[in-house]
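Recall the central idea of this unit: under ordinary conditions, the amino acid sequence of a chain determines the structure it adopts. In this exercise we apply that idea directly, starting from the sequence alone.
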Amino acid sequence: MTTIFTGRIRPLVPRVDSEAEAMAVEGGTILAVGGAAELHTRFPEADTVALDGWVMPGLIEPHGHPGFSAILLSDLVVDLRPVVIPDAEGVLAALRAAVADAGGDAVFANGWDALLQRGLPDPDRGFLDELAGDVPLTVIHNSGHSVYFNTAAALAAGIDRDTPDPAGASFGRDADGELTGVALEAAAVELVLAPMLAQAREHLPRILPAHLRDLASRGITTVSDLSWNTDLDPLIDALRAQGQMPVRLRWYEMSRPGGAPAARGADDPVVRQTGVKTWSDGSPWVGNIATSFPYLDTPATRDLGLEPHHIGRAKYTAEQLEVIAEPYAAAGWQLACHAHGDRAIDATLDVYAQLVARHGLDDHRFRLEHCGAMTPAQFERAASLGVTVSLFVDHITYWGEVLVDDLFGAEHGGSWADAGAAFAAGHRATFHNDGWVTPNEPFRNMAVAETRTTRNGYRMPGGTPVTREQSLAAHTENAAWQLFSEHEVGLLAPGLLADFIVVDRDPVTVPADELAATRVSATFVGGARVV
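Accordingly, the structure predicted from this sequence is:
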């Protein structure tokens, strides 16, 4: 049965400012977009649904982590994130309360951020032992790149001084080789969090659908997961069978040294694997991004435990990264590499160039993720190699002042996440929120990329603002293309799937300083309302 949706429709094609009155949908696919009278003449038997608001393509989150976010943002974990608890006193009070209420059970908390929650102590094993005693206490840094734990948590996870550092990750150790209570990077973090993940397994049928519905309520109709756990596949199948899959999912398996690619899934329009995730460096907030320039010597960097003029290092050498990436590239997978520092980006581009030449790859769409310190020349080189970029512009929203005043100065921090340089180099650039790290807020991403202004009104001293056409594309058609889904979603055009949202203001003409306040009143996936 055909349905004609009427409203003020912004299909974003053939021009970003195109406007239509109606859209005909059948079987989840768009048949036509145009004038209301025209479509009613073409489809006289169609039902009509009047939409109250502005209609636009569903938004796409090209770098998410819904599988893990569902756990960290659930009631199983104490939420310490700065967007929830802005100060150190509140963080410590929340931890003490959680330990007191735990009844001896393990406590897991997420969101520790000494750069935004000023005055937090060094969360080493001694401090956490004093705070929690025999209660296992694990605290995840807001970046997700490190985790802190006490002695009881180490015992619960089966970790001790004899536990070796995993490849590309490490445990903090004192001069005697004893654990200091910190784990850095994914492979070590996962070992510490193993008890939490085991506990969460039985709750996933409840918390994962709730998280996916939350994404849909924010206008996101397609989300990627760049750390997908294939153990969740049966749950996803069950959710689809129950009609509880409110978003499309594009997932990436996590690479590993000596790993082999999984079998490529079918061309399922709802759920399928898109690529493979790998890492070059870490997080600017913990000091382990690979740059050619040093961190500033400030009270903030000293509080992070960084020596004066500290320069971070990559997780892997270029040679090691190439060995990891080779089997996946040879099998035709898209690679998505986390790279913040300019040295990490150079090394990743070197590896990508070798893989492209060796295997004669054409439309590979290899990705660079986050791109914090990426320079205009690096954006140009990436574009020449066919490499695509996804920028974490929300770093500006929450940490803009920190990047300039505390970490890198105006020259390097001021041009952080330079989306304008990416577009100028010819990229189909995208924006993202990186799962739980910042709230899923695509419209804020667009506004920040257009103004390069933080939530406190601070204007970044460097970098290039983007246009409205570019910011909208970053969360619609560009993101669809980056996920090899441009034949399905990203625009409102005949032949594409009917994924669209209804918002309270015109996304094309609303001033940039009002764009972030856009509210979503309805979300449709395949022509069916999901929120």
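The longest strand covers residues 47-57.
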